[in-house]
Amino acid sequence: MNFHQPHLMSAALLGGAVFLSSAVLADDGLGDYRSRFDPLPHLPPIPADNSLTDEKVELGKMLFFEPRISTSGVISCATCHNPALGWSDRIPRATGHQGQIGERNTPTVLNAGFLDAQFWDGREPDLEGQALGPIEAAVEMAMDLESALSRLDGFDIYQEHFAGAFPEDDDPVNEDNLAQALASFQRTLNTPNSPFDRYLRGDMNALDTQEKDGMVAFVDNGCIACHRGPNLSDSQFHAIQVPGSTDVGRYDVTGEEADKYRFRTPTLRNVAVTYPYMNNGATETLEEAVAIMGQEMLGQEFEEEKIDNIVAFLHTLTGEMPDFEVPALP
Amino acid sequence: MNFHQPHLMSAALLGGAVFLSSAVLADDGLGDYRSRFDPLPHLPPIPADNSLTDEKVELGKMLFFEPRISTSGVISCATCHNPALGWSDRIPRATGHQGQIGERNTPTVLNAGFLDAQFWDGREPDLEGQALGPIEAAVEMAMDLESALSRLDGFDIYQEHFAGAFPEDDDPVNEDNLAQALASFQRTLNTPNSPFDRYLRGDMNALDTQEKDGMVAFVDNGCIACHRGPNLSDSQFHAIQVPGSTDVGRYDVTGEEADKYRFRTPTLRNVAVTYPYMNNGATETLEEAVAIMGQEMLGQEFEEEKIDNIVAFLHTLTGEMPDFEVPALP
Prior knowledge:
Helix content of chain A: 25-40%
Oligomer: homodimer
Shape of chain A: globular
Largest interface: A-B, 27 and 27 residues
Order of helices and strands of chain A: HHHHHHHHHHHEHEHH
Number of domains of chain A: 2
Strand order of the largest sheet of chain A: 1-2
CATH superfamily of the largest domain in chain A: Cytochrome c-like domain
Largest sheet of chain A: 2 strands, antiparallel
Strand content of chain A: under 5%
Number of strands of chain A: 2
Number of helices of chain A: 14
CATH topology of the largest domain in chain A: Cytochrome Bc1 Complex, Chain D, domain 2
């Protein structure tokens, strides 16, 4: 405790609204816990065959907000991955073409580039593979890709942007480039500098006591076994049947009995702003979600205090939302 | 012609990318034409019983982007009045709840505060009256207002914002305030400083020769009779049956035979970015639209050059799009 130690005081003052309730902590003795986690980088890994360029990101942003690549002309990626709603939709299950309701809750695209398996059932390994699925899905945008590309090709501005983003292609308005551009934009949708990231990087006051107790419980009770790495997901598949769900999950992809009811671990980044929860979106609050995960995955009945602490910790995973402007479409 | 006149040269240089094709014009001799028009103010008239405050605008912005005041939970005002698409939707007819297609083309909300009659049939006089219609319309958001208000009331943040915007109300989450907040936000969605506005304010080079020829044709051929005032609409009702339309228009509102097929004059502000055109959205290009208006409203077959000039003029009516950030919703 060095309350009057000059350099700590000045650091606190320079840091702005630091609340000196009792002391500026040089260390809180939880280093072993912190070492189990990784702060979120500003960018996820970039694949060698899809370099991240400004031109692709700008085109990808336009495409992400483009409703005319849906059959109705009013549904875009941003309809369900709504930037006003944590880049998700905050309804239980995705609602798409002609109001059809899908089987699963919309995952946020925030930090999705840090996942090694996309969709709840991991049927695609990367964002390039993921990007075209919702355009074609009958319950989402319900558009065949040829028609989508033909609509885009009808606009000079898209022709120019595709050519600028993929200058080596003779015929750049194609499926692969549509996927690459969308994936590139999504790789910029990350949320660094959450309170927890600031804590991991050395700001001992970025978390309060309850939040730290939650972190300790998160580690000690084994949540971290699956929710690990920078995006707090192992990108692996684990069997779970949450209340109300009969969804067989990864079994749909592999047809293997062992994969029945397995789902890819969802990220916990920004989990406080991406409710409701679980593959069927039937769980409304983090308190319920934590209790269910304790029962289903860890075989434990968490007492209320533990739940409250873990929920407090989960709230510290909300980072800085991406800074972007709605593009002007042609 | 004062090509070498020092102060004009320096003004041109200071003004940036001014193209000195032949001369910097002190006056182009078209003052009589300019005097027929009004530049767009930054704000429309504000009604005495709904003062424009930051709190109402901020709340109105949240509500405008809020899909949970629709039955499906995915349709907001911004779905059809999409900021990426000129605050309209760029499809022929509005598409709403469960993919239902309405009868009419979505009007832009840009500069709507300058209109004295709202909707194509003018069934509401002002934005307060207009705001709740699409929430309730079965083919749009399909939500009863009581349920919409109840959903909003379920969020602490909305309770706080309503209380902050309407501090004198004991029970501020109500229909009137929902309408007032939405109307307030919409009154900020204006597009001043179009090339034509800069021209009207004295920048003789803001329009080129063809665009000025178009302005002259617009006046001389009588387009200005209905498309007048700052928003280039008289807010009056005129009978027109555009190709493919059987819509009786204002007759639906008044039941008077004389009102059959009458529609409120649409604004021409930003008309280049708010295609397609006409009450049924069946007209895709400005060239077609100008030709149809010549035939239907003025009894003239415009020659191609006149059409091209008027279209060039209409392009000068695209102003600066509103600067806004997508709100973070609870």
